[in-house]
Here is the input.
Amino acid sequence: MAAIFPALVLLLWETLSRAGVLSEDGFSRPSHWAPALVKALGDGTLLTQTLETFGAAFQAVLIASILGIALGAVLGLFRPLERAAQLTVDALRPIPSVALIPLSLLVFGFSREMSAAVAAFACFWPILIVTTASVRGVDPRLLEVGRMLGFSSGKIILKLALPAALPGILVGVRVAAGIAIVVTVTTEIVTNPRGLGHGMTMAAQGLQPDLVWATLIWIGIVGWLVNWGLLRIK
Amino acid sequence: MKRILWGGAGLGLFCLLLLAWKLAADAKLLNPLWFPGPDRSFAKLWEWIATGALWQPLGATVWRMFAGWLAACAVGIALGAAIASSSLARKLLQPSAEFLRPLPASAVLPPAILVLGLSDAMIVFVVAFGCVWPILLGAIQGFRSLEPRLVEVSRLMNFSPWKKAWAFQLPSALPDIFAGMRVSIAIALIVTVASEMLSSQPGIGYLMLVAARAFRSADIFAGIIVLGALGFAANYGIQRLEDHLLRWRAG
Amino acid sequence: MLEVKNLDVAFGGSEVLRDLSFTVAEHEFVCLVGPSGCGKTTLLRVLAGLTAPTSGQVRFHGQTIAIVFQDYGRALLPWRTVSGNVALALEARGIPGAEHAGRVLPLLQKLNLGDHADKFPLQLSGGMQQRLQIARCLAQEPQVLLMDEPFGSLDAITRQELQDEVARLARDERRTVVFVTHDLEEAIYLGDRVIALAANPGRIAEIVDIELARPRSQLATREDPRFLQYRHRLFKHLAH
Here is the structure.
């Protein structure tokens, strides 16, 4: 049932393209990009690019998680700090991740680290906010027990607060993972160091509309799969 | 009173961080080529404002962002209302919308450039395309979830489907629609800036990319500040609009 | 005004109402009482046209039926003000917007909501919200007003106030009312006639004409010996 509409769209696209209504240079057509998709999958280019993109995204989530969870735990435990930090967070969070691309280019040049850095900035905020809320939501009784037992602040965080807040934190990391993919692809499209975005821009510049559309479809599939997979991890 | 105190503390912390940035930059702890201090960054921003160099690119970015976002709102709400009213339409179309939602909107840029060329219209289209899905899905959700008792009231008063949609379903759907709009406005800003960078269309994004190639780091940071402010303002605007339109909620 | 003939209602194999027949005359205040689960709400919904009967007929000799729901919070438009909610009924009748203010305000004043015209429902107390729903229903100018345990979720004092207000309005505006309640004393206090329903399945157990003088008063009427007689007579129908 869900496939009916896409099937109709593809049919219409194919027909209009053959009738000359949609320009072949720009629009391509399903009967052209489908084989291009298969070929790109077969010769490994799409897969290599996908791995590049995923690699950068993974780096981003890792960095963002370490920083976000650490800072989030501290802010979650010390309410005064959280309230003081509110202004800074509200000032920095609205900065769109793409705004950091020029800076990242300057520092990292055209590399996987460049995309990872930009995506890490985007991922940091949801993780920080969710971790703060989750840690703050930990039953204060549990933390009192830690203090009674003479634990240092670090130990309280590590042994009590974080494990208790874990379910909430994982939600944040899940959201961040989704964001990481999107931002990484976006960064690649704009600056094309490597990865799927790079592949697409190269195809566009090489006047290969079939490959452009094929890559787009692939990105869509990958994006949907990642999303679906993340929801399943629950 | 307490809020003012905490606001003050927040401002204090922020200034402290700015100071730390300045000290690190002065002490050349950070590569000065990449990280000018806050003083140079703000000075550059001030220069942009004073010479008027800011307004044209900013205007272009803002116009594209809002044109695309507003188009997405109009289409998303209207289409969402229509789809919500028919369970057949929902089963046919909602899966496709759900599939397209996680697609990075910027991924549509290269095909869009192929089809529409390097132009304002292309950017606005891509922005609209990226923004429409959260709003559409929010609208479908909102229009479907009218309180059943009110559905009965509408029936008993013999209202036409249009009146029912306008007087009952739309106000009831607003919270869900606003949730979609808030997500979308963030997407709008990102996609606009990304589009400008990729297509070299005049705007803040392009300005910053050019600055990067010329190693003008103060310009880059000034741009970051401008975009951060734009993001903040957009979010704030939506929040205020939502607070006004939804002021009937308890509290 | 309203004729019910051999009404049968069944849901998914279980009989809810069986062979109900009664009439409601113009300007009459009829109360339906019965133990919980006897189908009184279902009956009201059939009368309103919200639920279809399995067999039998409901003949309504008028154009508009309004129903006051028990869960008033869910039946009001939270995004419209008090005036706006009442105006909804006027919009349903096709009355032009210019006339709305002139009609809404007097109605609100009749229900003691005049000072709250610009508030939103969520800013009102439970009793006021129910009054608002009643105001909106009255603004529909219905030939029959149905009320489904309207005071069930309100405290005793508010309940008594609203009972008297409804009785007064029904009399002043010469309305036909079908009032459902599980509270026997409320039914006797308000009704010209009380129809007692038995449960499982719902059917008419007894119909009693209430000959108590109007206007009725919470203290005097409830101590009237005839009130107590009616109560004795109908009490057995409330047991399961």
In short: The domain at 2-62+143-238 of chain C is CATH 3.40.50.300 (Rossmann fold). The mean pLDDT of chain C is 89. Chains C and A do not touch (no CB pair under 8 Å). The radius of gyration of chain C is 18 Å.
